[in-house]
Structures are given as C-alpha cells and as structure tokens.
Amino acid sequence: MIYIVFGVSGIGKTTVGKLLSNSLNIPFYDADDFHLPENIDKMSSGQPLNDEDRLPWLKILSKNIVKWNANGGGVLACSALKESYRKELQSLNKTCVKWVFLNAEYEVVLDRLKKRKGHFLNHQLLKSQFVALEIPNYGIHIDASEDSGHILNEIHKKMMKNSAEFGLIGLGVMGKSLALNIAGKGTKLAVYNRQVPEKEVDIAKNFENSNSNLSIKGYDDLNEYAKGLQRPRSILLMVNAGKPVDMVIDTLIPYLEPGDLIIDGGNSHFKNTKKRLDKLKIHGIDFIGMGVSGGEEGALKGPSIMPSGSKTAYERVSHILEAISAKDKDGKDCCAYIGPEGSGQFIKMIHNGIEYGEMQIIAEVYQLLRFHGNKSPEEIATIFEDWKQSGLSSYLLEISIDILKKKEGEDVLLDKILDQASQKGTGGWSTNAALELGKPLNTISDAVMARYISAMKSARVKGSKQYKSSIKETTNVNIEKLKAAYISVRIINHAIGFDTIQEASLQYNWNLNLSEIARIWTNGCIIRSEFMEELVSLFKSSNEHLLLHPLIVDRLESNALGYKETVANGLLSGCSMPVLSSGLNYMLGFISEQSSANMIQAQRDYFGAHTYKRIDRPFEESFHTNWKD
Q1: pLDDT digits (tens, 9 = 90+) for 171-203
Q2: What 8-state DSSP symbol labels residue 5?
Q3: Can 227 be counted among the known catalytic residues?
Q4: Of 33, 94, 173, 424, which residue has the fewest beta carbons closer than 10 angstroms?
Q5: Would the pLDDT of 252 be above 90?
Q6: Is the pLDDT reported for residue 128 higher than 90?
Q7: Which of these is catalytic: 13, 348, 375, 483?
Q8: Considering only CA atoms, which of 41, 60, 59, 42 is closest in space to residue 50?
Q9: Same fold for the domain at 166-341 and the one at 347-581?
Q10: Rounded to the nearest 10 degrees, how much is the dihedral formed by the CA atoms of 445, 450, 455, 459?
Q11: Are the CB atoms for 293 and 303 separated by under 8 Å?
C-alpha cells in the first residue's frame, strides 16, 4: 500500500509523512524530490506551475508508485491539490493507494511558511494553492493545526476505524459460526466468500445484512476485501482442506504485503502446513496452521484452538483467538501456541483419531447391549447416564445418551439411520503418520477400519445370511464388567494417541507440552471429558507412556479381568468389537516381557538373511544363520 499524505505547501506533509512511514516501517518519499529542474526554477522565481508543467512530474510519480508498491509499499508526501492530479497519480494502479488529507486554515499554514527557510516555494503562492485545492470526499481527513504527534495518532485511529481488524474467508457452517463468535467478542471483522453463479451468490453480503447488529463487513471482491483490512492483515481461511486451501492462498498473494498473516483453520495435513509456511515466507507473509475442534456449536460458543507455525505471528492475533476459545475449569483459554511448523494440525489430527476411537467404543458397547444383550435404547441410555455420573462423563457419552432417547413419532430415530459411517480423512492420516513414526496406533487404526467395513453394506448383508451360526447370539452382559472394559479401553485409546504425539515431538523437534495439550482439550473440543482433565495433572508429573503411570497401572489392573471377560464373551456371541479387542491386544502386548517377535526375526533371517540380534551377546552385533543345517 502507498499512503499519499497530501495538502497545500506548508501543511506538514513531509513531517507527518516521515512519522507515518516510521510507524508503518515502510520508506518515505517526498514528491518535491521528483520535480523537473525547470519546475523548481519556475516556482523559485515566484511563478505558479500550470497543469502542463505538472503532468510529466505526476507521470514520474505514478510510475514510482507502482514500483514502490511492488517493493513493499511506502509513504509519499505530495500536494495533489486537484482531483485530476490524484487520478493521474493512481492511473497505473488504483488499488494500492490510500489517501491522507491534511487540512488547516489559511492563516495557520501561512504562519508556518513564513517561518520556513530554504524552501523553493514562496509563501505568497499559498493563496493560489488554496484556490486550486479540490477537497476530496474520500480518504482520511486530518486537522493539521495540531502538533505532529497528535496528527499521527489521529491518522492511525482513523485507519483502524475505517478498516477491519481481522478477516475470514469461507462462510460454510464452521466459517459462519466462527465469524459470529469473533464479531460477537467485539472484533471488527471482514468476511469474504467466493461467487459461484446459481450456487453461491452474495453469501458474504447476505451474512453482513443478517447480522447487522455486529461489526461485520461482507465482500465478494478480493481486491476490495484486502483494502478493507488493517495492515498488517490477518486472515483466517475456513475452506476445505487440500487443493482449495492452496488455490485461495495463490489467489490472495497478489493482494497481500510483507508482514501480512494467513491462518489455515481447516483440517489440513500437517505436512502441507510446512510447505505453505515455506512458500509464503518467500513473499514475506506469515502463516499459521491452526487446528479447531468443537463442531458448529463449539465454533460459535467457544472451540478448542491449536495454532502452530510463526510464534510471533500468533502473538499478534492471540488476543482474538484466545477471546473466542472455550475456557477450562479455571477460566483459562482453551487456546495455546502449540509449536513450530504444522504441529498444531498434527495434534488436531491425533485429536480426531482419538475421537474416532471414542466414538467406535461407544458404538460397540451399544451394539453389544442392544443386539446381543437384548437391551432397549432407553435402557442403554440409563446405563450411560449411570456411567456419566460415576466419573466417566464425556461429551461423546452425553450426545450418545441424547441420540438413544431421540424418537421420530413412536420409533427410535437411530433405528432409521443407515449403518454406513463416513469420514473426512483425518483418522486415516493419523494411521499413516503413526506408520511413518514407527508407533502402534491400534485402537485408532481399527476405528478407521471399522468405518471402512461399515461401508461394505451389500457384502455384509450377504455375509449375514451365509454365516448364520456366527452372529447375533444372545449373551448375558455383565454391566459392571462392561463398565470395566469401557474404562480400560478409553485409557488405552488416549495413551496411544498421546504416545504418538510424544514421538512426533521428538522426531520433528517440536518440544510439545502434553499437559498443555490435554488442558486445551478439556473444553470446547469433541473429546473433552473428565478423564482429559485428569490427564492434565498426570502429564505434569511425567511425560512417560501413560500406561506406566502408577495411578493408571492400578486402574487397569483392577479392571483387567472384567475387560478380558467382556471382550471374550462379546466375540463368542458374534459381536464385532474391533476397538475393544484391539485395545486389549495392545495392552497385553505392552505388558508382555517376552513377545513373539523373536520368531518373526528368525523368519526374516531365514527367507531374507535380514540378520538378528542375540540376548546373550552385545546388541551392537548382528547374526545370520543357515537355518537348514
């Protein structure tokens, strides 16, 4: 952006322009320095310039304005008395100029000119300037009779008054909810949504009109949108992950300047965040990859927010993000700087993986009780209510109770929903990330696979008719033992997720704080629960694997028998229990001092000469055996 400080000679353009350039950290230029020698001679002799004299000078300035803007902007002090002069100055780029008009009474300016020494404009020409002056009805108008410090403050106030402090792009369900949350907390907001004929028309304008009680300005033109934001700009993207994010970023770059900030608030892959950081750094633009959890309601009332990337950039917008976030039990914001690169979106990905596991656990418990234990939805809701009251409260358990109680007429609505689970990809990403890190992700991976199996509806229907002896057998479900299984598998599911985060922190040098991550997940997000609040203090005492914490060891030990019997009886009755059984297998593997892996190593050496290590020799040594001899 080029800020042109204009007005008659002696009004203070140079003084104010230099102060403004220093405050904005951009170069200052004085239009008088670009006058042709013949113009300077003419003015020094007391003759006013005519329009023919000024035109070459204005053209030189207009070319420089384009160049200065391309190099990061600047402040230009220029008389620009007539509208025709101002049009000429921005003739090559209308979008990059912001006008600051300094005005004062003739006597005030005359007094200043009389005191000025060494200036080529004779003060007697001042009247001709006031006659030529055409006061615009646009730009920032400032009373120049005050001291320069006061003038600078007034310019900044009016710049802020006329511009939005924060921007948001993408008015889908989450985007609209976050926009209302942001504006509702007192932030002046600019929103933009693309125009798609017959599909997305005037979305931003309509959103502004329907929320006229809030400080929201809607735009459907990116150029005008960028001009309506305070510098440096801060823009939150709420668009679909993947190529749409890159397309919006590429479209935005020509309208942005060094120091501006883009925040990606979607479920983007953490590695893409690193690529976008590096790409935007070339343009001098900051980038934050930010996980947001809480769904539509959380976005509106207070989500859990997980920003990462540029810490300096985060600190610039932290007051906005923290204001809209949920609050923990102590009133602290459920928003905290996570770490560098894409660490914020990595932990959001693992959050979603834990969420997949939690949802599948509840679904399996429901399936066992409903179709193998002959319990009605109302009875299952009562069981869940009892669990909720006994220290197992969680958001997902709460909504499951509501789902079980919901009826459509005389029928339970749940029974009318097709049993094919959808997903958006973050669960699968978690599995891939764990494979790259070399960490087991049993419960989370099996929750993802359960959704894939659910999609095989036609095959499942055929299978149910051909394997009649293996499914839907009635069993006597022991509720206390089922509760033991539920307690245990939830601990294991969380332990797996946090262990993956810890490994990523080590391998990627992120230095993540597990306790702080657990804290911002205690409210606003989908996996908030009483157990998550407990994890805040557990991780404060130790970052060791959760299953090794003495309190957790005692809890799993006391519930182990009930867990094993529940899984065994459920499988014997033909109930599919992928996550409950996966969690049990993980725990049994985790506590096995002697695993079966020595057989695997022997097999690998047999067919591939991959070698093996011996327990009776130093581990630095490797061995190979000819197994047929």
Answers
A1: 999 999 999 999 999 899 999 998 888 788 889
A2: E
A3: no
A4: 33
A5: yes
A6: no
A7: 348
A8: 42
A9: no
A10: 120
A11: yes
Which residues, in sequence order, are bridge partners of residue 100? Answer: 5, 140
pLDDT at 115: 72
Please give the helix or strand (H or E) that residue 605 lies within, else none.
Answer: helix 597-608
Distance separating alpha carbons of residues 77 and 432, to the nearest angstrom:
57
Among candidate residues 88, 208, 257, 355, the one labeled active-site is 355
Sequential DSSP letters for 432-480: HHHHHHT---HHHHHHHHHHHHHT-HHHHHHHHHH-GGGS-------HH
**Per DSSP, what are the bridge partners of residue 191?**
168, 218
DSSP assignment of 284-318, as one string?
A: T-EEEEEEEESHHHHHHH--EEEEEE-HHHHHHHH
Q: Which residue reads 């005050």 in tokens?
A: 146
Beta strands at 166-169 and 140-143: parallel, antiparallel or unpaired: unpaired
> Do the Cβ atoms of 582 and 442 come closer than 8 Å?
yes
Tokens 């479209």, residue located = 251
The average pLDDT across 17-33 equals 92
Known catalytic membership, residue 540: no
Entry pTM: 0.76
Question: Could you say which of 2.30.40.10, 3.30.565.10, 3.40.190.10, 1.10.1040.10 is the CATH number of the domain covering 347-581?
Answer: 1.10.1040.10
CB contact set of 147 (below 8 Å; sequence gap of 6+)? none
Q: In b/e form, how buried is each residue of 550-583, taking b as 16+ CB within 10 angstroms?
A: eebeeebeebbebbbebbebbeebbbbbbbbbbb
The CA-atom distances, in angstroms, between 353 and each of 105, 336, 477 are 68, 20, 28
Cis peptide before 56 (omega within 30 of 0): no
Architecture category of domain 166-341 in CATH? 3-Layer(aba) Sandwich (3.40)
CB-CB neighbours of 273 under 10 Å: 24
CB-CB neighbours of 240 under 10 Å: 15
Q: Which of the listed CATH numbers 3.10.310.10, 1.20.272.10, 3.20.20.150, 3.40.50.300 matches domain 2-161?
A: 3.40.50.300
Q: Which residues contact 550 (CB under 8 A, 6 or more apart)?
A: none
Torsion of CA 10, 12, 14, 15, to 10 degrees: 140
Kindly list the domain boundaries of the chain, sorted by start residue. 2-161, 166-341, 347-581
pLDDT at 455 over 70: yes
User: In whole angstroms, how large is the CA radius of gyration of the chain?
Assistant: 33
